[in-house]
Amino acid sequence: MAHPLNLSTLLLAGGQGSRLGGIDKGLVSFDGEPVAARLSRLLAQHGNEVLISCNRNADQYRQWADRLVSDPQPDYPGPLLGILSAMRVASGSHLLVVPCDMPLLDAPLLQTLIALASEHPEQAIALQSGDQLQPLICILPLALLGALEQAWQAGQRSPRRWLIEQQVVTLTIAADDPRLLNANTPSEWHTHHQR
């Protein structure tokens, strides 16, 4: 039986953008607006609050978020800490997570993910494209906060490995689904921006 979720949402924009030459990926323009603006608007349709994990450019990100979270330690320790920081402050029962470098994510895909989470409210849910887990597109019960705290303290830094340890339930879509466009170099952004 489906369980109504009280969703908080998280946009992960805390990375270094090393493959983009240090550019903040969430602020790159896509179809005439920053990707973070586009994705936070999408998240706002599905949850009760939008959290953005960012470690720089807070003044810009603040306009799209109900609340900002940042890593409590320096040197960009990775997205798992961004997720942990958001879980510590989220007000909902579950946290819907998306990364800032997939500008073509859409409402139907998130709605399908949410429907699956409603059927498995006590389990972590993640997207899978073909045989590839997409660990940064997931829904996490806030009840997993303690498990994530323990894993982080024990040295876990991989969202994928941590989700597998939680017996994650997956929603599988085609490996070449265009909604998972992931632009990681300036030329890729430029190419897709021109389309």
TrEMBL record:
The residues covered by the MobA-like NTP transferase domain are 10-166
- Tell me which EC number(s) this protein carries: 2.7.7.77
Entry-linked SUPFAM superfamilies: Nucleotide-diphospho-sugar transferases
Record GO cellular component, one term: cytoplasm
Asked whether the UniProt record includes tRNA processing among its keywords, one would answer: no
Q: Name one GO biological process term.
A: bis(molybdopterin guanine dinucleotide)molybdenum biosynthetic process
Keywords carried by this UniProt record: Cytoplasm, GTP-binding, Magnesium, Metal-binding, Molybdenum cofactor biosynthesis, Nucleotide-binding, Transferase
The subunit structure is: Monomer.
- Describe the function of this protein: Transfers a GMP moiety from GTP to Mo-molybdopterin (Mo-MPT) cofactor (Moco or molybdenum cofactor) to form Mo-molybdopterin guanine dinucleotide (Mo-MGD) cofactor.
What this protein is called in its record is: Molybdenum cofactor guanylyltransferase
Organism lineage string:
Bacteria, Pseudomonadati, Pseudomonadota, Gammaproteobacteria, Pseudomonadales
